[in-house]
Every structure is written in C-alpha cells, then in structure tokens.
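For the sake of clarity, the format in which proteins appear in this thesis is described at this point. The fold follows as a row of integers, each naming the local backbone shape at the matching residue. One such record is shown here in full, so that the layout can be seen directly:
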Amino acid sequence: MKVLLTNDDGIQATGLNVLRKALLEVPGVELAVIAPDSNRSATARSITIRHPLWVEEVEFGDGTTGFATDGTPVDCVRFAALGLIEFRPELIVSGINHGSNLGDDITYSGTVSGALEGALLGPPGIAVSVKRTATYDFGPSAAAAARVAAAVLKHGIPARTFININVPAGTPKGMRVTSQAKRNHVTKIDARTDPRGGAYYWIEEALDEYHPDSGRTDHEAVREGFISVTPLQPDMTAYDVLEGLARDLT
C-alpha cells in the first residue's frame, strides 16, 4: 500500500521521523514524506493561496528522502494529490504531534487536518499525537499508529472517514476506541509593550476544562493512561436540528 506521511511540527521533528521508521516496517508499505519545512502548529485546514510555495528534497540520513515545503499540512497532502510524488497515496498518516489533539481542540490542529484532507480527497487518514511532556517517548505512539495503519490497510474504513489517535505519556495501559470530548475553551490575552512603546499580545490558553465525560471520550481515555482511537468524519451537519429547522423555515 502507498502511504503519505506528513505532520505540522516540521519535517525535522523527532515525532515524524520515529513514525517514518515504524511505517517502513509495516509489510507492503511504500512510503513518501511531504511535510512543512518548519512548525505549522494550529494552522488547521489553512491553505496557501497568496504566495508561491517552495519545495525542496530532504535527506533523512538513512538513504531515504522526503519533500519539505513552506506550506501547511493541507498543502502537503494536496501536493501528493497533484503528483509531487510518484504515486497517488492510498493512506495519509499525519504526526506524531508533540502534544495531544483531543476533543474540540482538533478543529485547530494542523496534524488532524492533514488526515482530514486525505479523507476529503479520497484516501483514509490517520492522525497521531502524544501528550505533551518534558521528555517525549515516541515509541508507543509510533507502534499504535503502525498498528492502526495496518488495520486500515487490511480492512479499510468508510469513505470520508479518518482516525485520530492520542497517546498518553509513559507506557500506555492499552487501547480504547473513543468519541470526541467537548471542551470549555477560555483564552487569555496577555497585553505587553515593546521597547518602543508599541502594543503587542500573546494569546495563551488559560482555564481549559472538559465537560463531564460520557464514559468513552478521547480525553478520558488518555487521562486514565490509555491510547485513544477516535473515528471522525468531516460532515458537521446537525442532523437532530435539520428537519425541525426545515419545517420552521420552508
């Protein structure tokens, strides 16, 4: 199977390179890498339309190469669809992200958007992230991603579907299939003054609390030390509202 690997932390990120080696060990996988040339965290599904994109080949040091671009993760997936690499991907894998992508936060995530873009263009997608910690161990995350990738390649998943994997710090207790958690987002804006008297701002996360868990959410699984595997889809229609709204307005 033909697999494209991307991320949002940049092509030199340790997480991507650990995952690259793990995917190369999956039997039958032919792998290509297209990733941003530097960190593009929290870019979500943004695309580059107001300036040209540059691409260069990068040597990984083990005889293999990939492509780095000054675009976003979504740009990277589109490059593959447009023929930058020699094959059309049958699976998109995005990660390993340095930090979790849980609950409502996935709407910000460049990592998750790489997998989502794959689902929209045709191939299934897998995003994988590990909980932020002082010292990262990407081994369990890479193993989880390779396991899920092998299952998807063997059994498939429905069209326009992708999978979001989140791994706790340390040694996972196991794996759970989960739903997406809901989060109360509170943002703090830190106003500062530069040496010339101009105003500038740092946007920071302040108090971020999750809603009470349903018993099966991604947040709960990772909090309890389990790997979370969440099937997702891009259709954001509120079907429970659809018919009632149609009766009221049409």
